[in-house]
Automatic annotation (TrEMBL), chain A:
Species this protein is from: Oceanobacillus oncorhynchi
Protein name (database record): Ascorbate-specific phosphotransferase enzyme IIA component
GO MF term set: DNA binding; DNA-binding transcription factor activity; protein-N(PI)-phosphohistidine-sugar phosphotransferase activity
SUPFAM superfamilies (alphabetical): Phoshotransferase/anion transport protein (SSF55804), PTS system IIB component-like (SSF52794), PTS-regulatory domain, PRD (SSF63520)
Domain (PRD): residue spans on this chain: 182-286, 290-400
TrEMBL record, chain B:
Keyword Hydrolase: no
Gene name linked to the record: ulaB
Transmembrane regions: none
Domain of life: Bacteria
GO molecular function annotations of the record: protein-N(PI)-phosphohistidine-sugar phosphotransferase activity
Protein name: Ascorbate-specific phosphotransferase enzyme IIB component
Organism: Oceanobacillus oncorhynchi
Database matches in InterPro entries: PTS_EIIB-like_sf (IPR036095), PTS_EIIB_2 (IPR013011), PTS_EIIB_2/3 (IPR003501)
Amino acid sequence: MLNERSKLILNLLLEKRKVNLEETAKLLGVTERTIRNDLAKIDGFLTENNLTNLKKETMINYSIENEQSTTIHRVLNKIHADSEKQIDYWEEPIYRLGFLYNKLFWSEQRITIESLEKELFVSRSTINNDLKKLKNMAKEMSIDILFEKNKGLYLLGKEEKLRILYFHFIDLFEQYNYNLEISNDDEAAILTYWIRKVEEELMIEISYSSFQRLIPIMRTITGRIQQGKKVTINSKNLNPKSSYEMDIIDNNCVILEKYFNIIIPPSEVVFISKQIYRSNLIKNEVVYQGYQVNLDIIVNSCIKEISKLLKIDLTLDKELFKHLALHFQTTITKDDYEIAHLITKETFKDIKAVHEHIYTVVKRVMQDIGRREHIPFNNEMEWLFITLHIVSSIEKIKDRIAEELNVILICHMGIGTSQFLKYQLNHYFKFKPRIVTKKILSEEANKADMIISTIHLQDFNIPYIQVTPYVTEVDIKNIQRLEKQIIEEKITFQEEGVWKGRSEPMLKDLLTEETIETKVSVNDWEEAIIYSGKILEKTGVITNEYTQAMVEAVKNFGPYIVIAPRIALAHASSKDGVHQIGMSLITLDEGVEFGNKDNDPVRIVICLAAIDHHTHLKALSELVEELNNEEFVNMLLHSDKEEIVKVINQK
Amino acid sequence: MKILTVCGMGSGSSLILKMNVEEVLSGLGKDAEVEACDIGSVAGHQVDLLISTKEFGDQLEEFTADKILVSNVVDKSDIEQQLKDYLAK
C-alpha cells in the first residue's frame, strides 16, 4: 500500500520523470532513508500492477519510464477513489496507538479528545477504543493515562517507564516501516556521528537495525532532557557496565550537551549506556549452511597462525581482530557477496606481486582453517583482502616500533652540531634521537637500538652508523637502510640467542636453594604439580592461575609432561600468569602415577615458567643434557637441596 | 627437509625435542628446518616429518606427514636411532 508520502513522490516522478534522493528528502523534510523506503514501496506498487520498476542512476536519481505514466495515473486515480473515506495507514490500529502515545508523550499540556479527533481523522468512538487499548498497554509499564475534566488527557508514570514505552513504539513502527519523525536531518546527523564515535571508542559494533533505532532513541532522551524531564535511576545501583565504559559515554555526552544545550546528569548517562548496550552488537557467531560458526575462533586462529608463519606477532592488534571479524561475517553469511567487484584485476595482480610472501601465508592458513571449519575459503579475492588487512596491521606495528626506537646521537663537535644533526634527522625519521656525550656512552649504549655518530666508534655490538656532521643524502639513505633492518629484526620473533642484550638465565640462576625441595610427600600427581607451582608462586614468578593451568594441561592433553622415565616437566602457557622466567624442582619420597605407561612412576617434578619461546632455552638445554644422564638423576633422588645446588653450580 | 616437533604448549617438550633433533641431525650432517609448536597449531604447517611424544599419537593421526613418536624426549640415542631409520627409508 502506498502511504501519502509515497503517493506524493510518485506524483513528483510523474511530473519531473526523475527525482534526486537528497533533494526529495529535503523537500519533504524527512531523512533520505525514509525516501528510500518510500521508493521501495513505489517499486512494490509498480510490481503489483505489472509495471516496470523505477530506474536507479548512481543510487541517487530515480526515474520513471515515460510510456507508463498513463497507466500509473489511472491506477492512482482508482486508489484515490478507494481511499477517499479514510487515509489507509490509519487502518493499522498500532499506528494510531503510537500516534496517540506520541502526542501524550511530547505534549507539555493536557490534550483534549477533540484535538485528537481532528488530527487523526477518526471518530470519537475509535479514539475511545484506541485509548482503552493504550491504557492497557501503559498499565503494564505502570503508566497511567489520566483525564482531567475540562482540560484533557495526560500521562502519569516514572520517566524511565514512559521512555521505555515510547521506545517500544519506535520498534513497532520500525517493523511496519513507519517512522516517528522526531528528529530533523541535522539532529539525525549529529546523533549518527555521536553513536559512531561512542561505538568506536567502546570498541563495539552495533548492528545496522539497532543503529537506526538508536538515533530516535537518543533524540528522545535529549528531547526529554530539554523538556526538563529526568530519569531517577540511582547511578550507582544500576550501573550496567564497567566504569571505564561509563567514562567513555560520559565524556562523549559533552557533545550532546553542547549541541542540544542541555545538561546530562549521571543518571541519564547510565540510562543512555543501558540503551546502547541493549542494542544488538554484531554477534560473534554466524550461521553457515545451518551450522553455527564462531567468528572469534576463526579470527583468532587466523591471526595466530599467520603470526606464527610470518614470525610477526599480530595478536595484540585489536583493530585487525575487529576488521577480520567483520570481513568474515560478510563473506561467510552472504553467498552472493561479490568482493570481486571491489577490486580490479590489475590491482589484484599488483598486491599479489608486492606482498607475495604474505599472500602465500594467508592462502595457506585460510585453506587450513577452511578445511577445519568446513567453510570454503577458496577465493583468491578473499585471500587478497585478508592480505591487505595483514599488511596494514604490519605497517602499523612498524610505525609504532619506529617511533619508539631508542636512538643515540654522538657528536664530537659540540652541542651545536648535535642539535643541528638532531634537527635534520627529525625531518626524515619518526624516532626521537637523544644526544649523548661519549663519556656516558657505554652506560647508555646497552639500552640503545641504534647509534648514530659523527666519529668512529669501536667495540659496540649495537647497530651503529657513522655519518658526516652535515647529514648528506647518502647518510640518510644509510640510516634508512639500518632503521629498516632494525625494525624488521624487532618485529620478528627472535630465535634462540639472536636477541642481543637480553639475558638468558643459566640453569644455576633458576635452580637455587629457594626453588628446590627434596623428598616431598604427596598423594597424587595433581598435588605434586601444585607443590612445584607453589614454590614459584612464593617467589613471585607465577600466579596461582599458572599452577591451575599446569594441572589443566595434563587433564586436557594427557600425561605427556612426563618427558622421561621418572621425570615430569610441568608447565603451562606463558599467557597463563607468568611474571618472569623461573624453574622449580621437587623430588618425591615415593613414586607417583601420572598415567604415562612408559615413564611412570614419577619421582622428579620440574616446574617451568617461560615468558616466551626462547628466553628459557639455555637453561632448558642444560637441564635436558643433565636429565639424559642417569648419574645426575640418581644424584637428584639421593641428595638434599644443598648438595643439588652445589652440583648444578659446578657444571 | 621440514620437521615439526609437537607438544601441548609448544614451549616444553616440543622445544626439548627440537633441541635434541637439531643436535642429532647436525651430528649426522643433515640439514633441516626444525620448528616447535603446540598441538593446536600443527594444521598450520606443512612439513615432512612430525616428532612428538606417544601421548599425542592419536591426535596426530589425521596428519599425513611421517611421524616419529618417542616416550623419552631427553633420550637422544633413541631419537637418533629413530631419525636414522626414517632417513634410511
